[in-house]
Amino acid sequence: MAPAVQYLVMIIKPHAVHKKLKIIQTLEQHGFRINGERCIDISFDEAWYICKDERGKMATDSASVENKMQSLMGTAIVLLVSHLGSAFEAVAHALGPEDPAEAVKVNPQSVCARFGETGPFNAVIASVNASAATREIQHFFPRFSDIFHGPISNIAEERIAIDAYFREKMLPTLLDGFYDLCVRKPAQPVPHLSAYLLNNNPNHPKIFKPGEYVFGMSSPSGLTREVEQETQNYAFCSQNRR
């Protein structure tokens, strides 16, 4: 029986992106095939997602986690790779030890030894096991997820539902609020928009009756006089635009 093809994710860290072609060539020499490639800007949240384990927990050594996250933040290359047979054993041999200094001694031809710098700046990281590979493929290459691992996640449907919810429940009121900001150009745009959203909530609109809202007095919300004056004209502005 022929060995099965296994898929996993590799990330070329920002400091090693300029060595991408040589790194890919080295991976191909170790039997890996590149099936997909993305260039992404890894933020703090993205780095946190990459560093956490399957239970959503971080390592107890906060200093090492912080350094690892720092090495990931920036413009990186995410690769979807495949290998015939034991992919994770092949990864360990191809990448070498995580510490570049140790990699130079133990496996001088490894990716970490040849392209790494120091500490967590070790050029490339990869999925550590099949479960991590599944999670990372779902995250970085969702359209390939069902092909490689079967319908184990409804991540695409969840994104569609989130997008539909945003467009139906939030976008119309937000667009009205942004239009109002552009027309009025208030000195305090954030409180202005906040007041607009609170007072124009389609589910719980606030209606000020004559004499109920007194200009110049401090309001329960703590808004400034300028914002209070502007909120009194929201309805008039919105009605005219519609």
The gist of it:
With 242 residues, the protein is of the alpha+beta class. The chain contains 12 helices and 4 strands, in the order E-H-E-H-H-E-H-H-H-E-H-H-H-H-H-H.
Count the domains. Answer: 2
Please identify the top-level CATH class of the largest domain.
Alpha Beta
Radius of gyration: 26 Å
Poorly predicted ranges = 151-156, 212-228, 234-239
By helix and strand content, what is the structural category?
Answer: alpha+beta
Distance between the termini: 68 Å
Give the beta-strand count.
4
Give the CATH H-level superfamily of the largest domain: Nucleoside diphosphate kinase-like domain
Total number of helices? 12
* Spatial arrangement of strands, main beta sheet: 2-3-1-4
Shape, please? Answer: elongated
Strand % is 5-15%
> How does CATH name the architecture of the largest domain?
2-Layer Sandwich
Element string (H = helix, E = strand):
EHEHHEHHHEHHHHHH
Query: Percent range for helical residues?
Result: 40-55%
Q: Biggest sheet, open or closed, and with what strands and sense? A: 4 strands, antiparallel
Mean pLDDT across residues: 78
- Within the CATH hierarchy, at the fold level, what is the topology of the largest domain? Alpha-Beta Plaits
